[in-house]
Fold each of these.
Amino acid sequence: MADATILSGDIGVNYLANNRQKLMYWIGGTLTSYTMNQVYSAMATLLDETTTIDSGTAFSAETPVEYTTGKIDTGDSEPWFMSFDLMEKITGGALRTSGWTRVQDSNAGIIMVPVVSGGSIVAGDRGFTITSDTDNDEGTLLEFIDTGGAIDYCMIRPLTSGIANSFDDTTPDQGLTCNAHAATQDSAATTGEQVWANLYSIGTIDSNVHLYLYQGVADVDASRTRVYSWNDATQDWYANGHIDLCVALNDITTAAWPTIDDGYISVFARKYGDLYASFEVSNSTTAGGRNPIPLQTSADLDNTTGIGSFTYTTGVGTFAVGDIVEGVSSGARAIVTALNAGPELEYIPIDDPQIPFTVTENIQTAGAAKTGTNIGAPAASGPADSNWFDQTTTPTVAFASTTFDVDDNGTPEDYGITIDCKSNPLTEVYEWLKYATRNGEVTNDLDGINGERYIGGEVYLKTTTMTNVLAEGESVTQQTSLATGVVVSYNPVNEVILLRDTRGSFTTTGLVESDDSTAEFTPDLAAVTFAPKTASPLGTFAGGTFFGARGVLLTNWATSDENKFQLTPIEGGTKERPQAFVIQVTNLDSGPPSGALNDRVSVFRLATVGGIINKTEYNAVGGESPSAATLVVSGGITQDTPGKATGGWLVLVDAPSGSGAEYKIRYDSWDTSTFTLSTVVEFVTTGTNTATQVEYSGGAFETDVKRGDLVYNVTEDLVGYVKTVDSDTVLQLEGAGIAGNTTGDSVIINCVPITVTSDDDVYVPFIDKIAESASESVSVIFVAPVYYRVKVRNTRAAEPIKPYSSDGTVATSTSNQSIPVIRTEDTIIS
């Protein structure tokens, strides 16, 4: 029984006086989780009492989301212990320990003693004395972690700091006894400090997505593994949807508890049938930190085929595509993707682990609103079944260097990954690639690793200095930069290397050495980092076209698909695709273009990576007068200026010798050197006109005008911008509007508002508008690499958001950009 409890009795607290426990542990009850701050606050309150003030402080708070437990007060003899099981119930903050490291003859500390599974020691033995039968070590069992694997863990507070209580037996045969229960020590105890990082996901994801985590060195020997519950080696401890959880960063199975993979953790959102998402976070190895995980998933319209099927006997109601069905006996759950004669149901399994349906069991939707009985034996379906493919054979993926002249220009390109389509159509190949990299795919070997964690190539290196043979699959490390990676492919003729699972940034000057052989080189010709395709790591599919991930080659494609794919060799560039790229901003608050509450979304061209917005893109020829409907620039308009036929927004910058003001003007099209503006014919205001309202009885504002349009009052020679289109005849203006605006004034929408001179500049944002749909995009002809900045703001909506901004680079014409806006509500603005 606990000496005390906190937080509605869900957390037990035992003091040092009770057999030297001094621990906090999970009892469970009213809630499933608590924030780190709630535990901190509850313990502070508990220890601020007459009978407990002499106990050591349980926590210190470095920030509202970073805490320390262990030895906190000066003179503390023993550290507090926070159980690993309890940490699986903690959200909203990180935790590190202090004073857990055992130091012989000065600090008893906390140790982990590994034991062979199958013994009789259980979690309920917590708090009892544990002893060894060979060395007569003695301590207090603080937690027994039954991993479900071959080795379990005893967390122990040794009786003393002396060697006699070190549990340092190195032979796997020493017996342990606790509360009359026994276990066999597997190896010597370990000790150290632990850091728990707090990870929380943000963005928009399917509620049926189960996020999963990988941790460990990313090489081919499977040392990078799934993060499972401490008390179950087969599954994690949290539900579907967004996460807010703590993950231990230190390896308690190794002496001194070293940090695992420098604190990196990868988070995946890969529910088959959705566009995937993943993110790798670098956590603070000293404080853990509270770390956001931005993820964006959505239904994949090109990945709708189920991967399992069974027949069933009709029961109550009629199942429909999209229903979630559950096995009454097994607890398996799946989304219905098709209903066939039989009746037969095709499905996509969900949850983690994905439980299989069992033959003859009954199925039902929530609340048994629809039922089926006596299902047949579940069978593979869709891309899980080779007979589903057009050629009744499954595509294959090979990882090795190869060259191929995709565009038939006489110069073969380098590739490191080859997808053999087996003459199947790309629609089928794409669904199989999604199947091979989905959550739950741990048998389809991709480059020596589980498909569910395969990310793709990330770094391209080119050298002239290779020494010895670099083998595919080797791990490499660069001197000075300390960047690391795993070799996907190496072409010894062209000296081109493709790396995956990289850490840090490779440079063209540091020596790269193999960790597995004597090979070494300097990537003196190229060291390029590029972003993997998180939505589908081997390639995405959109608009009937397959877009291969960098370094991916297609072979044996169906004849009908000859012009339906674009590939990117390791060196970059594109082959067999239209020379255009798309910048798309998603997760927008949108609506009619006349509204006042929608997001303002802009994508600006930058002068350099991370630099300033390029506001000197063009120089005006000059000569236009106020009210002009066209604007001419010198030198010609470049092909990568958006809206040649569809229009966009430009910004006219008055010369420094003038006002220096900027005027945003919507245009309908451009040709050669001339922008044709979206000019509404000049009209004379009627009705009620004020500084912030324009009225014209003959207007067609709802058709011709959008929020943000420039309004030029010819009479007053002043400029304003549309805030809302109230009706066909009434506009409201932003801010102070136009001073002096009154009935009878001449007004033009979207015209040149000043006398233009050759000193004036013009620049053209890729996107600069009010969001009319949940995603806004622009197609741009590729001419050269583009650096851009996305800005999204909305202070007018019912839930205003904090300004969102992110930078990106379009390195090649295949670098389609999709930027999901992270919507963080601004609760301060008023």
Amino acid sequence: MIQGGIFVFLVFLAVVSGVFAIGQGYLIATIVDQVFIQGEGLQLLWALFWLLLAVFIGRGIISFLTTKIGVRLASIVKVSLRRRLIYKLAEASPNRLFRYKTGQIISVLTDGIDNIDAYYSKYLPQLLQAAIIPPMILLAVFMHNVYSGLIMLITAPLIPVFMNLIGNMADNKARQQFDSLMTFSGHFLDILQGLTTLKIFGNSKRQRQNIVKMSDNFRDTTMEVLKVAFLSALMLEILATISTAMIAVEVGLRLVYSQLTFKTAFFVLLLAPELYLPLKNLGSSFHSGKNSIAAAKQVWQILDEPVSEIKWGDKSFTEFVDEKIYYPKIYVENVSFSYYDNRPILRDINFEIQSRQRVAIVGKSGSGKTTLLKILLGILPASDGRIMVNGIPLSEYNQDAWISHVAYVSQEPYLFAGTIADNIAIGRSEASFEEIGQAAKLAGVNLFIEELADGYNTIVGEGGRGLSGGEKQRVALARAFLKQASIVVLDEPTAGLDLETEHVLKAALHTLSENATVITVAHRLQTVIDADVIVLLSDGQVIATGAHEELLDKSDLYRELVSVYRGDQL
């Protein structure tokens, strides 16, 4: 609605600008004719001078308003696109996001959307003026001199025709430039994130050469775009100059042979530059518009990505239980899942989880353990089948109600830039400092907090820089304790830790499991042995379920896993 109103106002300003341009030419032609041809004194023309001054000021105001409104329109569009893009990325399934490098997504969010600015702030206002002002001037000229009008009618379309001829070349160059920028940005960020690994493996110099090569390629494509832009600007200037000269010759000859009055000839000659000026300005901003269109295609490529939406309802858990704390029963019924390439990951998964059970999901790498975990969390939608919670499909519950009962601790938890207290309270921003401290104590965070000068107010970097892996795991567990979730989903948080830290985290997990249903993707034998129910996966299917001793008796695959990886990761 706002963009439509601004667009209408830009059209109105273009019409007013055309009226002012015609009025300016008429006033100047009248004043010069009255003074130099009719011989009238200047004192009789003060009204026309004041009116001409008002037209000059009016044209300045119109130009200022057109620029300001174009910038405002660009700002609104950019904010809207960024919001839509962020919502799109937030709603997109992880398997969709993995198709793009992080640097490419960031480049689209920043440079890509910023490049769209020129289309709305420069190109679109100039396009409207080029579409409105020249026909108005052409009509005024035809009313005074048909021959000059015919010359304008023939020569003026040459400018847009020429722009159309170079349009395809400019479009291709702009697309190549933006593709080069996307590739360069994505690769450069990847290199920065993995710089330590590259140095260790002696590959940093080769990657530096790749960056130099990509940088040079981006420079070359940028220079190609500028070459086209400068060439088109030169040709447009030549066309406008030649056309104006033809009109000058025509009105000059007709004036010599007394076929035109001086006032009419001068008026037509003054309008000629005004006719070609909007077209030249459009040509000058033409390459900016093409760059914006190329950037917009990248933005819409992500916005048009199909989204596997997870359906949610409006039911809350309090409608079905009277207990203060809700302990659900979860049933996985015929769940199957495929990624965007239709490659099946899970097939007909069936098992159930009772209240406050400790469930371990085990299997070889690639068996679908993490994917199943994400479906249970509600992050990924099942392609077929459903998740039942207390006899109600998960899709009928309110999303916020479900999330409020679930806590997740990954193998590599992410900490945001900020204080340790802020990171613990990320699931309950209203929590008091005492509650944060209690949760931290249960998770063993207090064991290393005491060594920090600022305690819970210690600033950690993005991704948890400044903390060890074990310390980040404790902070992640503290989040779960503070949230008091009745369902805790773990991606084996003790994997890869030293024995002392692992002992602390195991004690915290035992405490956590006393008041919650714990679902773990297990990589350690001890975690499997302690589980009430073990779900064994192989090639995306449930091979067996049961306790440790039970599976040892009936499953060859489970015995193989236990015997081969005893004490190691499953």
Amino acid sequence: MSDRESTSHAIGAASLCAALLIAQQVGAKTTRDTLFLENFDVSLLPRTLAAAAVVTVVFVLGAGRLIARFGPARVVPAALVASGVLQLGVFAWARVAPAPAAVGYYLLVAATGALLVSGFWSVVNERFDPRTARRSAGRIGTGATFGGLAGGVVALVAGHAVGAQWLLVLLAALHLVAAVVVHRFGRSGSTSADEENEPGPVGQGWQVLRRQGFVRDLAVIVILLTAGAACLDYVFKDFAQQRFGDGTQAIGLVTFFGAFHTGSALLTFLLQSAFAPVLLRHAGLARTLATLPAGLALGAVTLLLVPLWPVAAIARAAESGLRSSLFRSAYEPLYTPLAPDEKRASKSLIDVGGERFGDALGALTVQVLLLALPVTAPGETLHTILLATTAITGVLGLLMAVRLHRGYIDALERSLMRQHVKLELDEVVDTATRTMVLRTRPADPDPATEPEPPRPSPPTEDPVLKTVEGLRNRDAKVVVRTLAASTPLAPELVGHVVPLLAWDAVAETAIESLRHTGPRATGPLLSALLDEAEDFSVRRRAPRALPDHHEPWVREALLRGLEADRFEIRFQCGQALARHHVHDGTAVARDRIMDHVRREVAVPDTLWRSHRLLDGQDRGPRFVDSPAVRKAPAGLRHVFCLLGLVLPHEALGLCLEGILTRDPQLRGTALEYLDGVLPADVRQQLWPKLEVAERTPRPAAADPDSALRTLMGSRERIRTLLSTQSDESTEPPQS
């Protein structure tokens, strides 16, 4: 048999195995829930779920050691055989002691279900080379989807015919057959554990969580959503037990859960095939991932308003379908910025620790409520609290998803620029990642314009090397002449000019040279701005060297620069944003700017008065230019510059000039305008910086518009007063 035929047969066997495993998993969930609720009240579910979380962690740690030592191709078939035998043992146990057997099977499914599926994918990754594995993932995934549907249908039909206990025999057979298939297609792969697929050590996973903020956010999202799903699951199963658990209905629990899991599998298939590719391509990873918290919150609120068992089933099925389709499609690519060893370590920690901690947290919430609520309290009270908790976790998950997007983009850009990860465009499914790959990859040469290899010729002096030599000269006059002759800079020279921003004697010339170079200098300048290890002089001067025309990603980098520890870096980033805003009128998120304003005005007065501009080159806010404003405190100029990004900048400029006058009437009118346009907490913190008491009397203006009209009519008077004050201190006097 040729290698191609062998690979094709192996992919077919892997698809069959995926179908068997997912069919078994869906049937096992039906059997697990049925056996438990037939023998116990739903109030015992939280304690069982917490115990299952502990057992799962123990099993996973043990399985990780075995896989690392013997390889998944040997461990997974043996684990499948052991699972099949244990399920037959549970069947025999259930014939004589159904209640303990139900608990034992719940723990067995929790400990082995996801673990065996994860081990199967390790065998796939070890059996095929990376390119074949990527290309075969769709075919294998189709087998898994078909298996989920088939498993639900078989559980529904067989469970209704013979009961939940006899389903254990069928489920054991599925695992035994899967063991044979895994052994056959996995044995031709590597016989030792593939280092790229071994789970990383837990300690390394914690290090990744400490270093990578977006990974921490992802872990928090997983914990929140798992805890919320556990609360929703309790309410759903309580409805199911009340409706179908008394034996008086035409269908029993096994039929109900079989139909439920079949519907969930069908919903997963529809969402994955119809919506996942479109959402990933147009909405991006974070928004696609946010569909799960949104669906979780919406389902909980709907069930609060319409507390009926069909609504509970729909809400729980929607959560399950979204988690297994859209959420999972966005979740896996979010690890792209991480190196392979970091990915293995952190993903293992989040998948195992995060989900199990979320299960335990949800179970603890339910158990505490069961103990805290009076015995006479109606079940509706417990349901209301749990559903409200679920809705809150969904909303928090949505907020975390917004933050996750920014962290993911930043981490991906750093990884691509430093070549920690390498991506091909055909591997990328979402727009944000494709954009970052295109932005950071070197341009491919055009074969049509690529010059022929040069013929041997006498050695000549390289003009680029000569220019670099001039830029590195210790004589400032030589450097200035070289910059003047080289502007606009060639791409290979930009990296040699950016460090010159730290040299006071040539910094202004370097700034002009970089600014006239245009977009090709933008990337290195922003990298220097955001690099905390870079020289402070380079960082504070980099925003001044940027061109006035900014792309959205440049504006985002400047907004991040507003978070710097040093005031002058923040000041210069604000000036660059103001230049862009005045030039193009591009809107900036109001809430984000107001958060930066709050940070600036919250500093102690001593620190506020110590703000200085070391270069002394920049003027005031770009929307106002007068001697009085240029002499105003740097902190005040920076705050009004930021406010001008989200408020009418001409009005802000006139207002600042009015505040700087010594005329009480004009100052009061300017303050009246600020009263109407600033949030209360910003105004309360800004007033002391203006040396104004909160209750300072001001003219009775009907509204901010009236105050602004008064200021506009007094423009000439304000300019005259400021002109007479230009040689005096412009510190705002006491009102």
